[in-house]
Design brief:
The structure is a homodimer. By secondary structure, chain A is an alpha/beta fold. Chain A has two domains: 110 residues, Cobalt-precorrin-4 Transmethylase, domain 1, CATH 3.40.1010.10; 150 residues, 2-Layer Sandwich (Methyltransferase, Cobalt-precorrin-4 Transmethylase, Domain 2). Chain A has a five-stranded parallel beta sheet with strand order 3-2-4-1-5, sandwiched between helices. In chain A, a hairpin with a 7-residue loop joins strand 12 and strand 13. The N and C termini of chain A lie far apart (51 Å). At the A-B interface, helix 1, helix 4, helix 5 and helix 9 of A face helix 1, helix 4, helix 5 and helix 9 of B.
């Protein structure tokens, strides 16, 4: 049996009690931390709390030569990932390969940023439209490319008065900040002729799930000046605010009454 | 301090290790199960596993006279809810009241249906548009009313080729089934002139997070004939399928190759 065990939002305590039982009873415990990071922990600390050796897999162990998969034919293998498992296509692909090999699989769910953000910000979950990721700008043929997709997704949601959750890129040990994410959005907006996006409302969230979680609302021009501290960061672009959401952004995200009033519907 | 502790998807083992620590150290442990249900458990079983008395609150204890809130001024109060906390406006309102009374609050996140569904079905989370709830039809002035909002939300997502997660109504001990949810959608569609919705693709999910979880894909006309068993149920209306999603629905949701081929993009 192959168990995909979600480790949740932040550190080794965010696993579920069910997940912990699976890990403690498994014959083999593997983890991968390149599709998502458990910022507050490490394979070593996981091993200590769980009382089991945890083997960290590389990208190629997971994507190219998952020879360990056949171990799950006659052993219980726990495969640990940050957040809720199966959000990454990589995990889905592994699960389908296993099922196609006749290996039964089971998903042990956990907390994840997509459901934590409505709770942390007070923005209602049913008012979120499609989410998107902001990738780091890159160079192609000597030209700087800032991908337009996140801005397009945000624009479409805004048209429908929905909130947008924007994941911020992770490349090796580079974590995109709220500030960098905003700069990407502004750059694409200006290139497309929207020069006033700096006056739009944004909410930055850092270190969701930890005691040091930080949530701040402001115009993009205000937020871009704020230091959100260590990763992970995430950016929310709210649609128009319902009354309770406006109240929540004042209490939970230090927004001024004047600011939220401008965006209430 | 007031802790909002998420109990996760299904039973008393879905709480996080962090959540369990908070419950065990709290001076007072309260729970409410009317905004969401922990189908696989009860306040009594929670008490047994957690080794603490758990007091079940009524709707009026929570919404009208939460006198217990002031206990959190100088005690640690753990407030337990199914799923991830703060998804319900009721919890947000409580949290804001507490903060406005000067009581610090902390959210302990957990697994929730919105993040579990992409994992269970293989439908990619970034391809979900806005979600909606299908309420039970009701009578007003002797006329049967089937609310149109879920169909409208689905239609708008379909136009953008996005998936739609449809929560199914709970009223007291009545849990809407996948079948009833589909019937509501079909009724609204036909009234609006769309007579072919029965041929659209749907995915029914029952008892997410449990060992007895069931996931089936089919046309709505096929799904409406399937018995999904005990609650909770949820319905997904996929947009066009990417290759990996089509493969996943065959492996994880017993869809036939012919069926998914019709919806691949």
């Amino acid at each position: 049996m192959l168990f995909f065990v979600g480790l949740g939002l932040f550190d080794e305590l965010d696993i579920s009690v069910r997940g912990l039982e699976v890990v403690r009873q498994a014959d083999l415990v593997l983890a991968e931390f390149y599709t998502s990071r458990l910022m507050g922990s490490s394979a070593k600390r996981l091993s200590q709390l769980y009382g089991r050796p945890v083997t960290l897999l590389s990208r190629s162990d997971v994507e190219e030569s998952p020879g360990w998969l056949s171990e799950a034919r006659d052993k219980d293998v726990a495969f640990l990932v940050g957040g809720d498992p199966m959000i990454s296509t990589t995990h889905l692909d592994l699960r389908l390969r296993a099922e196609e090999m006749g290996i039964p699989t089971r998903v042990i769910h956990s907390s994840t940023i997509a459901s934590a953000v409505p709770g942390l910000t007070g923005l209602q979950n049913y008012r979120f439209g499609r989410s998107a990721s902001i990738p780091f700008p890159y160079k192609a043929r000597g030209k700087r490319i800032v991908p337009e997709t996140p801005y397009m997704v945000f624009s479409e949601n805004r048209r429908q008065n929905l909130h947008t959750l924007l994941y911020l890129d992770i490349q090796e040990d580079h974590f995109m900040t709220v500030n960098q994410g905003i700069e990407c959005l502004l750059e694409v907006a200006v290139a497309g002729g929207e020069t006033e996006l700096g006056q739009a409302l944004g909410v930055g969230v850092a270190r969701a799930g930890s005691d040091g979680c930080m949530v701040r609302a402001g115009t993009l021009s205000q937020l871009v000046e704020i230091d959100f501290g260590p990763p992970l960061h995430i950016l929310v672009m709210p649609g128009g605010l319902h009354f309770m959401e406006a109240r929540a952004l004042q209490v939970l995200a230090k927004a001024s009454p004047e600011l939220v009033r401008r965006f209430e519907i």
